[in-house]
Amino acid sequence: MRTLTVLVALLITIPVSANQPARGPNVVVIFCDDLGYADVSCYGGKGAPTPNVDKLAAEGVRFTDFYVSQAVCSASRAALLTGCYNLRVGIAGALGPQSKIGLNPAETNLATLFKSKGYSTGIFGKWHLGSAPNLRPERLGFDEFCGVLTSHDMWPKHPVNPKAYPDLPLYAHGKIVATNPDPDTLTRFYHNHAITFIEKNKDRPFFLYLPHSLPHVPLGAGPDFKGKSAHGLYGDVMTEIDWSVGQVMATLKKHGLDENTLVMFSSDNGPWMTYGDHAGSAGPLREAKGTSFDGGVRVPAIFRWPGRIAAGKVCAEPAMTIDVLPTLAHLLGAELPKDRKIDGANMWSTLAAGQRPADAPPLHEALFIYWGERLDAVRSGKWKLHFPHDYRMTPAVRATGGKPQPDRKGTIELSLFDLEADPSESTDLSAKHPDVVRRLTALADVMRQDLGDSATGAKGSGRRPPGRAE
User: Fold this and answer.
1) Same domain, 66 and 131
2) Residue 6: CB partners within 8 Å, gap ≥ 6?
3) Which terminus has fewer CB within 10 Å in the chain: N or C?
């Protein structure tokens, strides 16, 4: 008996490895829509204060150089959920409500990953990865879905193309509960269902995906927030989202879940500057949504897990949403599929330390940035190389009141930027560093053989088919 007592005491005092927790955490992913790099205070935001998001950053790791695979809705979400560049899984752009494709059910995604480990899974917000019945969240690993299947501007009230879209249904647990829902109600609707999900699953592990429809246009805020921020309607929207973040954290703490819950806060792309005062800010970054400049593809990203993820750290390691799935698979002890390529890297050691360990190689030799099926740019370390391409330039006249201004067409030639010294991508250094241009071009050529490039005609051999409507 004495021997058994000593063994039990030793087991109790042995610390859990920082790299392999005894049991996977609950996970909450809060993913905003069109929220710009400088729309939260801790990223230099000058608009409505975001104290709850800032608190996440103070208690976790805030990435300064975190990317999405493409600066548009469906493509960005495909990369987050699968750990793959969106083109690898057959998704580009923003899928319309009558699209016949979506995320392939054969792909491993975050929901199926968590289901394989016995988690409850819920999505409350915007899906935008297929509207056909066989491509909806409940068929791709989520136990619960409450929200919309596309962007909420894909409805008959669209300010430019009102006849282009059918009525927009709002779903809750398989039923349509509203048609063409008032944008003022959406954030609270998603929030309420998310809180209920946490409370219902407080005694078992869960994965909560909260992809807000806002601050994508049309803007809307609930009665407790509308007209209250002193920063216009966009500020009201941000205040409500920040409030929701605070309430999610309070609910986790109320039920004793805080210490074993990893929370991620991010955005699908940069601000949609076509809408002027109904759009946010990319701060010092160039351009916005719909471009391959950093204003479009670099987003806020905060990760918090008390005692496991370093607190109050700022990390400049270039990373991307494709890294989320491999990292969470590591924490769950789940194997990644062996019959297909996953592009992301396990960034757990970076999160645990708050920076890349000195003896560790970079997460990625390079990150590749596409627009549609065109390879526009490569990010490697501090360098970013743009290949010649056109792009959607911010309108010359700032739009007001939710009525968009026409975009201009810009062009860029082969250009190399040092993002550490020049985050606005304004000074071309390609002539001074031809060796860097050659190296990044060689990396791009390898990617062209893998995923293709419409600018060069490369087809790519590594692309997999999307899901198709049955």
Assistant:
1) yes
2) none
3) N
**CATH code of 212's domain:** 3.40.720.10
The amino acid at 307? G
Residue 18 within any structural domain of the chain? no
Q: Which residues are the active-site residues?
A: 73, 128
Report yes or no on 17 lying in a domain.
no
CATH number at residue 412: 3.30.1120.10
Question: In total, how many domains does the chain have?
Answer: 2
pTM: 0.95
Mark whether 324 and 410 lie in a shared domain: no
CA neighbours closer than 13 Å in the CB half-sphere of residue 4: 1
Interatomic CA distance for residues 5 and 3, integer angstroms:
5
Q: Per-residue confidence of the chain (470 residues) as pLDDT tens digits? A: 444 343 333 333 333 344 444 468 999 999 999 999 999 999 999 999 999 999 999 999 999 999 999 999 999 999 999 999 999 999 999 999 999 999 999 999 999 999 999 999 999 999 999 999 999 999 999 999 999 999 999 999 999 999 999 999 999 999 999 999 999 999 999 999 999 999 999 999 999 999 999 999 999 999 999 999 999 999 999 999 999 999 999 999 999 999 999 999 999 999 999 999 999 999 999 999 999 999 999 999 999 999 999 999 999 999 999 999 999 999 999 999 999 999 999 999 999 999 998 888 999 999 999 999 999 999 999 999 999 999 999 999 999 999 999 999 999 999 999 999 999 999 999 999 999 999 999 999 999 999 999 999 999 999 999 999 99
Q: Domain containing 373: what range? A: 367-468
Has residue 2 been placed in a domain?
no
In a domain? residue 55: yes
Q: Show the 3-state SS of 181-214.
A: CCHHHHHHHHHHHHHHHHHHCCCCCEEEEEECCC
